[in-house]
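Because discrete structure vocabularies remain unfamiliar, it helps to consider an illustrative case, giving the amino acid sequence and backbone structure tokens:
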Amino acid sequence: MPDLSRLQRLSAALYWVALVLSVLLPVIVLAYAAKGVGDPASLLARVPGVGEGASVTRFQAGMVAAVALVSVLPMVAALRAMTRLFGRYREGEVLSDANAETILQIGRALLLVAVFTVLVPTVTTLILTWNGPARQLAIGLDSGTLGFLMAAGLLTVVGWAMREAARVKAEHEAFV
């Protein structure tokens, strides 16, 4: 029987971290969204590239808030899936089809997070400049985003590989 105590201890700690983050993250985004809707001009300081003297309407601030709230959903989904995965790991369930599916879900959610990392600043800047004298459409892609995208892709592939490994394990257990 393998010693899973280290995996179980680390997973127990990560379970709580993922659970707390999955609750706090949307609350923080909601608070920032409410602040932006309450004081639309405050959004200008948070978004570089918006021209000086630009004005932001409450409708624009609401649109930015909606984009922010939608963009946090894949991260919350990933964190909730991590909570499920760490919960099973802390119980000693390591190589199972459920874990493989959960890792695959995490990878897919993180791929969406990486896409939103590029799209949200672009859409936000476009929303905030649509009444201004000069509209802007700036798309940014940096090495951090590319690295995150690769890590999310890796998790997706690992999920597929674990699904296959769990299937092979189940076949072997059926023979015994």
